[in-house]
Amino acid sequence: MAISSTSSKTSRRAKLAAALLSYRGRTEPRTDLILGLAAFIIFLGIWYVIVLTGLVSARFLPLPGDVIGTLFRLLGEASFLNDVWISVARVWGAFFLSAVMAVPIGIWMSSYRIVGSLLEPVIDFIRYLPVPALVPLLIIWFGIGEGSKIAVLWMGTFFQLVLLVADDAKRIPREFIETGYTLGAKPSQITKHIVLPAMLPSLVDNLRITLGWCWTWIIVAEIVAANSGIGHYIWSMRRFLKTPEVMAGILAIGIIGLLTDQAIRVWHRRHFKYL
Predict the structure, then answer these.
(1) Sign of torsion over alpha carbons 85, 88, 94, 99
(2) How far lies 269's CA from each of 69, 115, 147, 188, 197, in Å?
(3) Longest dimension (CA), the chain
(4) Does 98 score more than 80 pLDDT?
(5) What are the residues whose beta carbons fall under 8 Å from the beta carbon of 60, sequence distance 6 or more?
(6) 79/28 Cα distance (integer angstroms)
(7) pLDDT at 1 over 90
(8) What is the pLDDT of residue 265?
(9) Please, what sign has the CA dihedral across residues 248, 70, 81, 261?
(10) Nearest of 143, 151, 198, 192 to residue 172 by alpha carbon
(11) Cα–Cα distance for residue pair 115/170, rounded to 1 Å
């Protein structure tokens, strides 16, 4: 029995090693979780070494424990929690607006050549413009209220997402479309019953990715004419060289983004098991 148990463990380890090292190998979610935690532990270890050895002064790079302690303290303050909720609302509002516009426009761009030919050059041009350089113009157009902040987040998300959606729709095999026409389907029915279901797995992935991009613009959106939000808090603490508070604010954004990203990943795995 002992020999059999040892042999079974060896076999499992060999399969795990093969899955981890093979090209596009598959692993269990538990293994992915363990590896992810190990990566964070290694990262924190390197961080500790850099500070404790004096490579970087603790004034500019606080110890991880100090940053985490500062974050827990801030989470107990109503003002910081209010900043968090405001930033989350801004990001999700701008992202929802981007998605509602980008999905139909992207599908039309891939479905009708005239739409693609008219819009793609303009979208390509605008998406290469530096969003921070447009902030003064957006403030002139939308004022110093929520409109300009949502506009910054939208600018950083929409033009990237619409091209990703168009590419997803273009990847649908033409045979699917021709089969729909053969069965008498109209263009609207083909879009609803063929194109959307076929592109949904990759669409969800691209939405997840662009949501992360939207979060990266929150600092830019909240440092100009803002009096609330995580970005405003980080910028305010920077003026007083309160590095632990600055890094705690950055850590809060990272945690929110990571939790959201992993939640969407779990949803994706459960609903698209055939991939």
Answers:
(1) negative
(2) 34, 33, 36, 28, 16
(3) 78
(4) yes
(5) 243
(6) 41
(7) no
(8) 87
(9) positive
(10) 198
(11) 13
Collapsing DSSP states into helix, strand and coil, what is residue 38?
helix
Of 2-6, 41-45, 78-82, 266-270, which gets the smallest average pLDDT? 2-6
pLDDT of residue 63 exceeding 80: yes
Q: For residue 107, give the amino acid letter.
A: I
DSSP structural state of residue 144: S
Measured at the alpha carbon of residue 144, what is the angle toward residues 141 and 147, in degrees to the nearest 5?
A: 65
Extract the tokens encoding 185.
């389907």
pLDDT, tens digit, 9 for 90 and up, residues 11-27: 666 666 666 666 666 66
Fold of 87-226: MetI-like fold (1.10.3720)
Cα dihedral 164/166/168/170 (nearest 10): -140
Using the predicted structure, report yes or no on whether residue 158 has a pLDDT greater than 90: yes
Q: What average pLDDT does the chain have? A: 85
CA distance 150 to 36: 33
Evaluate if residue 207 carries a pLDDT over 90. yes
